[in-house]
Design brief:
alpha+beta; Beta-Lactamase; 2 domains; 9 helices; 10 strands
Amino acid sequence: MSITKIPHIGEDGEVEYVTCNAIDITEQKNERQLLTIQHDMSMGLHTSNGLEANLDHVLTNLLRIESIDAGGIYLLEKESGALKLVVHNGLSDEFIKKTSYYEAESPQAQLVMKGKPIYTTYSHLLPVAENNSFEELKAIAVIPIKVGGEVIAAINLGSHSHENMTMATKMAVETIASHLGEIIQKIRTETALFQQQINLEKMFSTIEDFLFVLGEDGSILKVNQAFYDKLGYTDNELKNMTVIDLHPENRQNEAISIVEKCSKAQRNAVPYLCLQKMEHKYL
């Protein structure tokens, strides 16, 4: 409440009366709070922190909204179509146990897959048979998170004290959900690329065939362990060599042709005949 007081001065210079104006600024204060929450949330999102940490950060900030005191974020399992609860706050252990996983055929999962936000009371949202009334949730929001029109996750928010959520709250939550979809997709992409790199490094270090990473001029940038074990060269020696130098003189022209084809992506498997350093044998 914002109150202003205007004194009225009489002819004798004394205050005769005071006019008071009272304006309800609750809505303006709530809108400013929502903007602050959205700003704080966006500033704390970093893909390097990992998916679960970012989801927890988002949920923590959402629970700063006055009418929201409980919630969870579900991720869609692509293969099964089920929803799995990843982070949660403000809910009892018993409630979490009952709601942590929804099969694709469940009413809850099918509701999310429709892709439309839902704002209602908890008693009207779920079947009576589920009987989770012990949690005493009132207002409930279910906001699907989409990327390219495809549902990939969902934010469920609730209140133990409020029967509904304001329009400003709904708009803020949906804005956050749209940004979160992009973050989830980016983290998943980066995680997949990182795993591919790990798998490639593992293959590179364990395969028994010779593997080379070459520069455009044929210089040797990297080799695998099998190369070191069987040919006996050191890193210092390889720095001053090209892959052509590893071939016997009578096969170097052939090697040059093969390297040129590889650089043009015309070949990916090369039958190298390499010269062993210590015993001068061809392998």
